[in-house]
Design brief:
Blueprint (H helix, E strand, L loop, with lengths): L2 H7 L7 H17 L1 H13 L5 H13 L5 H36 L6 H22 L5 H4 L1 H6 L4 H26 L4 H36 L2
Length: 222
């Protein structure tokens, strides 16, 4: 059975049209180009986070279970695609640079220059762990590459950490799709819930931060 036909006819009952369209697009890439197609899809997913890896990777695993490509090829190309996409975002951060970041930060309301300095100090101490573990966290797995570029983390170190973290994330989702077979779309449902929880926690943290900053400024006024 062609993967494109499968993606078009076996959508989750609660799936939206955009999700079904992405599944069909990814299936077409994998069916036409094999491993390189899966790698290209994941590279784009890293640069454009709205493209969901929780759809592309399990679908690639399902393709492997159908003999379209091997598991080794699936993991190699998707991990290579992850690294390529991450390096692009690292380059964006490096081009933006610290000076521009500080200039942009100074224009934002409710923040202080010292906040950014503390953030930079935190990244200097924990940047390697942040990049490694960030590659396994929905939502932040792409975004973590930008501060790594801004802080000019040595590129070889960034590539090694990104490769290791991406390989773990890709292996879990690809193997889940491989083992689940025609139930590969279940993976996306579970990871989607985790993504929403992570995003919700980030929004709550931001709201608490803004509230504390507003109250702090109110106290500073004579």
């Amino acid at each position: 059975m062609h993967l494109t036909l499968y993606a078009a006819t076996h959508r989750p009952a609660a799936a939206s049209e955009p999700q079904g369209g992405i599944a069909g697009w990814a299936a077409g890439l994998v069916e036409t180009f094999g491993g390189p197609g899966a790698g290209a899809a994941i590279a784009l997913e890293n640069v454009f986070p709205p493209l969901p890896s929780e759809v592309i990777l399990p679908l690639t695993g399902f393709a492997a279970s159908q003999g379209v490509l091997s598991i080794a090829s699936a993991l190699f190309w998707t991990t290579l695609g992850s690294v390529v996409g991450a390096v692009v975002l690292y380059g964006v951060g490096a081009v933006f640079g610290r000076e521009r970041m500080h200039a942009w930060w100074a224009k934002l309301p409710l923040v202080k220059a010292s906040d950014l300095v503390r953030t930079e100090a935190w990244f200097a101490r924990h940047g390697t762990k942040a990049v490694l573990l960030g590659r396994m966290v929905p939502v932040f797995r792409s975004l973590i590459s930008v501060p790594a570029g801004v802080e000019r983390m040595p590129l070889p170190v960034f590539v090694v950490l990104t490769t290791a973290g991406s390989l773990v994330w890709n292996t879990v989702l690809v193997m889940a799709g491989y083992l689940l077979g025609d139930q590969w779309d279940v993976v996306g449902a579970y990871v989607g819930v985790v993504s929403k929880v992570v995003l919700g926690l980030a929004v709550v943290a931001l709201a608490v931060y803004v509230t504390m900053r507003v109250r702090g400024r109110g106290r500073e006024k004579p």
